């Protein structure tokens, strides 16, 4: 779990928090440059602040139980913890979890079936959990990926990096359905073997920032993009 200020909480699989010195003895103040001690003092204060924050988060997570059954996976465990933090009243506005393994250059069929099943089951459990808490109207979940995949299979039974990918948004106030135009798979409609995307992903971010988080999107995105009407 990583703390990024008061607004973003990044959740990883494993213990809530662990910190310590590993083979790093603190040098005597009689030796070494003065700036080194300032750095060490800063690190110790930061570690202490993080431990206090970790104790608070652990306390909040213990206030409620989960109301759904999650897959035993990194993504399932992460969303399970996020649901407990939301239900416990942690005021963080943005939670970030991740699921790896989609760089399927070889043997894509089996890997993709396993990953997408985990994604679907984990998101379903999270939505059920949040709905059971009565918090679904105030929660929005969005998926994104670093890259898409190409349309044609490569010689290794996988696909290489592509130019477009779907994004999923779920929540009690989300407009259901397909937003944008379904891309054509016809060879003549591809661009050098890639799908032609119909919606700029920054319009999705703009929609979340403007309409959900109620914050101007241009300073964040570096330019003005038409917000996609998600809610």
Main traits of this protein?
231 residues, mainly alpha, three-stranded mixed β-sheet, 37% helix, disordered N terminus
Question: What's the layout of helices and strands?
Answer:
Layout: E1 2-4, E2 8-10, H1 34-61, H2 74-88, E3 94-96, H3 108-133, E4 140-142, E5 148-149, E6 161-162, E7 169-171, H4 201-212, H5 218-221
Helix pairs in contact: 2-3
How would you describe this structure to a colleague?
The chain has helices spanning 34-61, 74-88, 108-133, 201-212, 218-221, and strands at 2-4, 8-10, 94-96, 140-142, 148-149, 161-162, 169-171. It is 37% helix and 8% strand. With 231 residues, the protein is mostly helical. The longest helix has 28 residues, at 34-61. It is globular and about 55 Å long. Residues 1-6 and 13-33 have low confidence and may be disordered. The protein contains five helices and seven strands; from the N terminus they run E-E-H-H-E-H-E-E-E-E-H-H. Helix 2 (74-88) runs parallel beside helix 3. A hairpin with a 3-residue loop joins strand 1 and strand 2 (8-10). It has a domain at 2-14 and 34-177.
Summarize the structure.
This protein is mainly alpha-helical. The chain has a domain at 2-14 and 34-177.
Radius of gyration: 22 Å
Number of strands: 7
Provide the residue-averaged pLDDT: 82
Q: Please count the helical segments.
A: 5
Helix/sheet category: mainly alpha
Which residues form runs of ≥5 with pLDDT under 50? 1-6, 13-33
Amount of beta strand: 5-15%
Shape: globular
Strand count, sense and barrel status of the largest sheet are: 3 strands, mixed
What portion of residues is helical? 25-40%
What's the N-to-C terminus distance?
29 Å
Order of helices and strands: EEHHEHEEEEHH
* Order of strands in the sheet with most strands: 1-2-3
